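Message: Just now I want nothing more than another pair of eyes on a protein record. I am handing you a single protein, as its sequence and its fold in token form. As I understand it, each token names a local backbone shape. Take your time, and here it is.
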Amino acid sequence: MPELKDDQVEPQDDVVGLDLGEPSPEVMEYARRELGETEEVKCQTVNELRDMIYERGECQPHRMDDDFLVRFLRVRNFNVNRAHRLIVNYYNFKEQHPEIHQDVNPVKMNHIGEDDVMTVPPYRTQCGRRMMIFRLGNWDPRKYSMEEIFKATVIILELGVLEPRAQILGGVAVFDLEGITMSHAWTITPQVANMVIALMVSAFPMKTTAIHILHQSWVFDVMFAVFKPLLDVRMQNKIFFHGSNMDSLHQHIHPAQLPKKYGGTREELPYYKWIQSLSKDPQIVKEMMMLGYVLDEDMLKQLNEKHQD
């Protein structure tokens, strides 16, 4: 999407919530131009993908409705074979890593927010994309494992992909590496690297359009050496290194759409506030239940009240 001019960037999008409605005409034009999406293409490819899933039997999706399947088609530019491979990878990843998917209660992931290890601003980039910000230097590996960070990341991704415009536009990741030490580097095993790549590239229906690295050091070089062999040229070209130069970051993300910590003008939002807010939406609670997340009494109450209406 074309970037907005300075006088068009207005901080009016700081309400915590998901945009579950139809994308704007501008976003749909982007979908048509960049993804090849039209109503005719969408209808035809959704039916083809559904038939392929049934015929090949490589996975058993928990949903087979159009809205669910179109997520996978959008991220693969409506190529049915590639979308099928993605949905198979998605469910294989769930089976291979039950520790980050099963018996997970999103409400009990507050410690990730309290430690400011990751956050998702309620506002978007000037191009309309969601940002996920990771501050790994704030994570103490002695307190909890990398598994907890994966759990929190997957929850946010599963919630984010409910937004149709996120399915179309993709998202942006910011890794602030200030304060990382060798104790963090030792946690980056080849298995962890493969899991990260799976979530960002091959096993989740959300396109990562850019990765911004801040405050990298020689410790990062040790960590990145594990990842680099797993990244193809296309993915490497999406990674931008800024060090402590916020002006460099601002060439990609407008200051009006960034936290003050990064030379921006906006406030932060703790991770847990997302979960608290979204857990009050019955539609979102229902989706989380279908995905297998453990729901507390308040969330179930919201869902029951919706059914009674």
